[in-house]
């Protein structure tokens, strides 16, 4: 089974299916879901590749976790490459669930790990000071545990990049999925011109990086070029830096046919 599953988890009252519903809506997917939907396909079609992935939606509580749950995770964990935890951003206690779930999911190699805070129907009466401390705690925990926090309702883009649903989509689309089919710049669709331009940029970058690779000092030249690119990337806004990282990863894939290392290469630039 391909490692192409996106596991979306949250308590029933936090409506994790809403996050998936908005992703499908934003990407013009025809699939329709409701609170009883547990599995839904999603087609990723971006500038770099096409991939068929699948959302798995669950509303289990951590106290329901037992040996049977752990056994189930051992069966499914290796096909999950994105994990989205949904909680109520106005109820600090709802965030505690991820700390318990993390004991299980940390055993698996999952590239995309997101904590999505959304407002439930019943807004909490938690006072402002407690909420500020809550958000600080979220930021600290997510940084320490290799998660990214995303405010579901905040969809305003900033200089640092996208937010809200757009950022969730971006995180999922920039992952190098195991079953991804790379675009070669000659596909017959409405984005053909843009794809050709992109692949030409990737090809030009590959030529710059590897033009002297067969020379005696070719490896040293490659390392120097990568260092210069990384230094240049640090001066770019977040979105532009992610774009550069993806192009570098694609150039390596073109040169060596790499798959598993692509995400590591991207991480070097992010």
From TrEMBL:
InterPro entries: Alpha/Gamma-adaptin-bd_p34, P-loop_NTPase
Signal peptide: none
Protein name: Increased recombination centers protein 6
Any one Pfam family match given in the protein's UniProt record, by short name: Adaptin_binding
Recorded superkingdom: Eukaryota
Species this protein is from: Piromyces finnis
Stored Gene3D superfamilies: 3.40.50.11960
